[in-house]
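Key idea: predict the complex, not the pieces.
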Amino acid sequence: MDRQIVCFQIPALRIALARLNEPSLRGRPVAAAPRSRRAVLLEVSTEASTEGLRAGMTLDQARFFCPSLRIISPDRQTVELAHRSLQESVRQFTPIWEPIGPGRFYLDLTGTARLFGRAIDTAARVQREIATRCGLSGVSAVATSKLVSGIAADRIIRPPDLRDVHPGAEKQFLAPLPVASLPSLNRLSAGRTPEFLDLLADLSLDTLGKIARTPLDHLELVLGPPSRLMQQWAVGFDPTPVWPQARRPSLEFSHTLNPDEVDDDALLALLYGLLERLCRQLRRSGRLCRSVQLELVQSDGRETARRAALARASHWECEIYPHLEKIFFRAFQRRVRIRKMALRAEALEAAERQLALFPQPISEENSRMQRLASALDCVRSRYGEKAIDWGAA
Amino acid sequence: MNSFVHLHVHSQYSAMRGVSSLEELCRAARSQGADTLALTDTNGLYGAVRFIEVAGENGLKPILGAELTHGPHRAVCLVKNTEGYANLCRLISSRHCDASFNLIGAVEQHRQGLIVLSDDLPALASWRESSPDDLYVELTPGPPMQQAVAFSRSAGLPPVATNRVHFVRAEEYPLHRLLRAIDLNTTLSRLPEDACTASTHWLAPFSILQRYYAHLPEALANTLRIAESCRTDWDFKETIFPAFRAFSDAKASAVLKKKTYAGARRRYLELTPKVRGRIERELAIIREKGFSHYFLIVEEIVRRTRLTCGRGSAAASIVSYCLGITDVDPIRHNLLFERFLSSARNDPPDIDVDFPWDERDRIVESVFDRYKTEKVAMVANQNTLALRGAIRETAKVYGMAPAEIDRAASMILKRLNFLRLAENPPVRSWAESLCELKEFTEPWPEILDRAFHVEGHFRNLGLHCGGIVIVPDEIRKYAPVEISAKGIPMLQWEKDQVEEAGLVKIDLLGNRSLAVVRDALLAVERHTGKRVDDPAWDPISDEETQELIRRGETIGCFYIESPATRLLLKKLWTRMPEELRQKADVFEYLVVVSSLVRPAAINFVNDFVRRAHGEAYAPLHPAVQKVLRETHGIMVYQEDVTNVAVALAGFSLADGEQLRKILSKKHKRLQLKDYCERFFREAMARGVPLSTVDAVWKMIMSFAGYSFCKPHSASYAQLSFKCAYLKTHHQAEFMAAVISNEGGFYPTFAYVSEARRMGLKFFPPDVNASGWAYTATGKNIRVGFMQIKDLERAWIERVVAEQSRSGPFESFDDFWARTNPKLGQARVLIKAGCFDSIAQGLTRPGLLWRAYVRAAEKYGDDLPNPREYSEAQKLRHEIEILGFPLSRHPLELYSASLATVKCVPARDMIIHTGKSIAMVGWLVSQKMTQTKKGDPMEFVTFEDLTGIYETTFFPDTYRRFYHILAGGRPYLLRGRVEEEFGTMMLNVRHVERLDTRRGAVIFEVDSIAIPRKSSRSSNTAASPMR
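Result:
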């Protein structure tokens, strides 16, 4: 039986959400970008795209090309809420669905024909359901693989369009498309996508059709081992299953600085504040973490993440902070200010309720700090977050 | 009454450590009542000569010294006498040049004439062994002081108090930390503690210091004892001449005379009494001054190559002319020897010689080979933090993102011109108002404030472009020597301090136009078998060459190719009345034009043109009428400053010369003020009205920083004429040489367009027809491999050699087998079309298939031969690989979008005089200037498919559009055609970028922009933070 994979997505979700609340944004060029002169565009509307704007352009560039551009700032909470609401809608149609980004899902509808009818009709129902429930207009594409349905959905310009790539027609559908349409080029090019595309352009292998037509042994001469996979993709062969979402519990706190900061002492103080919030939450929920991840976003948008595994699961600042300090200096190597710090506790587990049989090795200092942390928890839970703070020595 | 002398003081010349300038230090020390001050910069005497001058101006006695540091050891060395000075220079030189340098051993060896202070206990113990004389234990308030006191007592060495001054005021400590952070490429919070001095190391007055030394009064008293025993009456008046082959003075004079007469017979054929008289007069002065060695050395250097251009005042000497150092006949062009040398003047002569740029390094090497590093060193450039660098580096310390730094620095520097601020606003409030204006948030106001404070700080030494000093005995005796990044020994001083220290320098400079002339002459010789530059070659008298110069069609010609010069030439000759035109000498006018086109003299240009066209004028004052007759009452040459000062204010010739010299120096503010006051006082005392004195002084000030003497201009004009001759008679060879040698006023593409306008045709590079450089045949020019990006010259030369040795390449396979290229090399050659002539039916992508397969050392049969690249792809490859589109003009790409706009082509501009029109233009060059009121404006050169034209952006338009103007981009211009002296200019009112017009973009915007000529290289040192 041919698989029936649907790729459903709301193009420029942030803009679509903003337009729900502000009808004046409809029909005019809009872009989503953070509130900063130095920001880059995250999403552009169809109207903005016809003016030559693309995601990744700087705000200055965008305004230069399109003076009438309206900028909206993304609201992470609203996006998360909307995404959750979309999830509720799509899960009614299949138990096998995979979120691949805000407002974007793969649905495996294989074998649901007797229940819901043809996959394309189900896709239309999903669109209608979402339009009715959330007021958002999406696009869908049906194909026999994630690869082809994803590419097909990307090529739909205006919602609420639908596209159905019939089994056997994948090769024909993909043939005229540029190689850059492949969503996982990075995997083929080992992270050197621009150079890889240059190489293909040099060899006049600029469309998927040309890749498909070239004998594999010739391709292997110039592209090496990725040739086989690439040719499979070029003909639309992609057996990857739709992965149902697995829940991996974690706890995250983040802080956005304004203005950005470069001073280590100031940053470490903020980081310690984040750690305190994280540990308090862990203690409150009776959990421990086995590893922490620190993510730094610098002024120029560069993100760096470092992870530290703890020797034993903990929810005490005094045990986690030394690891955190180390990964902070490993992550913060470039001389560019920090804009945002996010601290995540991972590999969570329940705190032991059973007391240890033998005394645990714990230093006097750590024991003192743990008592202090507990006392701070009490003060803060009673009088509020800012009731007590650390002072300089 | 003085009770203490600061003996350990660092100025800005302690690179990226010392905060305060010499002026600030001396002023502050004087205000504290000091009468003596030492300067002890780190490992150098970088500011020693300047310090002597500044200390003198502030009534202080200067003590010279330096703090030597090496590994864990350190010592402050103060100079007692001349022997001590030489030893300190040797010590510092050794510290910088000798890999085996050991501070303890070196100081022990060179201690004579030096007083040594240190708190380095092992070093002190070692030096005390040899002699405890002139050895002191340095005490500075702080934790380690007690240990030093204990050592002083136990070792019996006298203590001396210092405060290791790094800044004048305690509040300047953050600037010291900033400098250290810039130096170490880190942030303030990651600055290691031991990288900085203590916050207490400021120029503290005696009243504060004595509190720290209450228990050690002898440490304070010893500062006075040391100061008294150090020499403070420094002057460097004695000129140090080089010696030619260890000849005696008499022998050198005799050899010089012999060589001069031999050269005179070659130059003049017949030695007239006038020539003989001039030679004898010059030789007598040269002999009297002891300069014979110097002339012989320069002559020996010049003889090493075929084409040179002696410039500067030396071109006024017939001896230089006869020796082949210069090429201008001083008798024919009426150049006065006194401008170069006279018995009344004490300053040493200055001979500057230009060499073809690609031969200069060889020439410098040969001088080092001849005189060895013991006697010769190059002059340095003392690189300082310029404003742009200061903003960038400070912003990096503050962790600003690179793109933001670029944007802010460029915006701030451009905006500086527009700011109208109250007189001397506090820097901080200025920075805040600027940031507010441009919406730069925190911490930009603080960054700007700090950047303005660290601007001008000494950062490091670079190599001067050509100054070389040769001494008769040991160079390290006269000044400290360091090794440059290129491995060449250089003095720690820049040219001004070198000259003031009495060292005679020779400037050996690289000149691209000499290489252009050389290459064009060789090409003509190759094609015709005739040598053009035989002794009878006289481009100055060639009528067609003169006409080309009169028309201002001088793009590519040395020194007269800029839009301003071409425009001035056109203005000068287009409307000149016929009777004056008949008499006017093109060469003489070109000499004037070369000198007149300089930033501050722009206001006098039109006056000069009107007067050259016969307009009557009143001289500035009857006293200067005779002096300035030759230049129609306008001060044009440097010597006019001297002559006017003598004629109007009664200066002596020496004082007038001094005034001229000060004008061209960097550190001149104070001296210039003195001369200004004196000029006004003495001129008015001679009855000259104030308004006239004021007008003349303004004209004098137009010479500040950038001006020529007449012999120099004449020498340059001679080279300009040679270029113009070649452009007139050997067009293809000349333009090929211009493009091949790069570095002209315009980007390569502008020369390609100019060549096309001259009717020359360009052909793409070809493996069997191209060389490294562009080559010319008849009216055709073949693009050289040099134009192809990322090709290594050495490999290309091997390819060309292989082709000429074993015959043309027959196919791509043949090429691969014979040259074994790397994939990258083959790739760019294929995409540039170099194999098109031997492709044997293979398309470019087909060739690339074979290149990739071969490079992977694999073999495959029946490889694909895809369809040829589209025309658009080929054009994109041209831009990507050659840097510009070769097959068509880039403006052709915009023809579709321009279909709706009625544009006037450049060749038809003249028929639209006085009308408002639209024009299309590819931006070729920009020249920013200021109006009389000081508002910024710009002259911009554009070209279209029919010609090159000039435009003016007056302040209002400039303010609106300056941010969208960039070289190598297309524009749609609207404005009014204006005519002045027969030349056309478009007075621009509105500008639009063509590449962002809707429907205009054929490629992505960035790929169509032709890259700028120069690229900045980043300079990232290893650091704790990248």
